[in-house]
Amino acid sequence: MKHFAPEEAPSGGFQIAPMIDVVFVIMLFFMVMAGAVKVENELNTSLPGSAESSGGTDFVDEITINIAETGEVMLNDEPFDSATSTDLKQLRDTLMRLKQNADNAKTPSVVTIVSEPQAKYHRTVAVLDALAAAKIETVTFTVSEE
User: Fold this and answer.
1) Is 103 helix (H, G, I), strand (E, B) or coil?
2) What is the pLDDT along the chain (146 residues), one digit of tens a residue?
3) What CA–CA distances, in Å, run from 105 to 50, 61, 64?
4) How far apart are CA 30 and CA 46, in angstroms?
């Protein structure tokens, strides 16, 4: 028998047996987990497609009111009242007729107020007063990009 001095001890090298054990444990884990996967049941759903509609499509009456820096008020690009008018009677009467027509047709009235950035605040309040008099409640605001 050959004796080695402590400084001449052979190195252990790469041990393959523990690596094979680890591979078998991992393989066993995946085999067990593959059987535990739940199979999804088929859901009876119907996807949207083309369907026949029984009635007509309701369209929303969209009204655009522009407020210029000069105080001029335009309803759907048509000028109303003067730039100095405070009560906007002509605009209010037209809005009341449009609201009445929308109510008769059972469609909602949607108003978008487009105001220029330098438009006077009191002019916007006058337009809102006219909308309140016409009982139009669906109002959105935007600022013109010009």
Assistant:
1) helix
2) 555 555 655 566 788 888 999 999 999 999 888 877 776 677 777 767 766 666 555 566 677 888 888 888 888 778 877 777 777 788 888 888 888 888 887 888 788 888 888 887 788 888 888 888 888 877 887 776 65
3) 27, 10, 19
4) 36
- Taking every pair of Cα atoms in the chain, the longest distance, rounded to a whole number of angstroms, is 120
Q: What are phi and psi of 103, to 5 degrees?
A: -65, -40
Reading the block at residue 70, the tokens are 């000069």
Question: pTM of the full predicted structure?
Answer: 0.54
Residue 94 and residue 120 in contact, taking contact as beta carbons nearer than 8 Å: no
DSSP characters over 12-64: ----HHHHHHHHHHHHHHHHHHHHTPPPPPPP----------SSPPP--EEEE
Going along the chain from its start, the domains and CATH numbers come out as: 61-143 (3.30.420.270)
Q: Dig out the tokens for 131 from the structure.
A: 């909308």
